[in-house]
């Protein structure tokens, strides 16, 4: 199972100049980058002005553990986020439309859903780098 904490992330490396894909490796804390915990891949594409981010985490045997797909409209607003956490058999979707967030989530075989006001500060994992960059005090 991929252990999200404690980790020390390896340096992010892009696959060439202007590349849309980033690869990284996460290491166990205090292992001096000797014990790999997971591998990470993030693909960022733009099609007709609409952004798409695909994020995947792999265990040390190369099996996909987590897969997330995040979609934006042509104005850059989040419109859909789909995730699947294979190791714990959890999956879910967030759809943003008409000022509301439509949430659907399966955990332990039980399906949950909710509708809430879509706040402008909704933060999901694939948006964390952009969120931090926008608020970094330089």
Number of E-state strands? 10
How far apart lie the N and C ends? 37 Å
Largest sheet: 10 strands, antiparallel
Q: Which stretches are low in confidence, meaning pLDDT under 50 for 5 or more residues running?
A: 1-19
Give the proportion of residues in helices.
under 10%
- Outline, from the CA principal axes? globular
SSE order: EEEEEEEEEEH
Q: Beta fraction of the residues? A: over 45%
Helix count, DSSP H or I runs of 4 or more residues: 1
Secondary structure: elements and pairs:
Elements: E1 7-9, E2 13-14, E3 21-28, E4 36-47, E5 50-58, E6 64-72, E7 78-85, E8 90-97, E9 100-107, E10 110-117, H1 128-135
Antiparallel strand pairs: 1-3, 2-3, 3-4, 4-5, 5-6, 6-7, 7-8, 8-9, 9-10
Question: Would you give an account of this structure?
Answer:
- By secondary structure, the protein is mainly β.
- It contains one helix and ten strands.
- Strands 1, 2, 3, 4, 5, 6, 7, 8, 9 and 10 form a ten-stranded antiparallel β-sheet that branches.
- A hairpin with a 5-residue loop joins β5 and β6.
- It is globular and about 50 Å long.
Features:
138 residues, mainly beta, ten-stranded antiparallel beta sheet, 1 helix
How would you briefly describe this protein structure?
The protein has 138 residues and is mainly beta. It contains one helix and ten strands, in the order E-E-E-E-E-E-E-E-E-E-H.
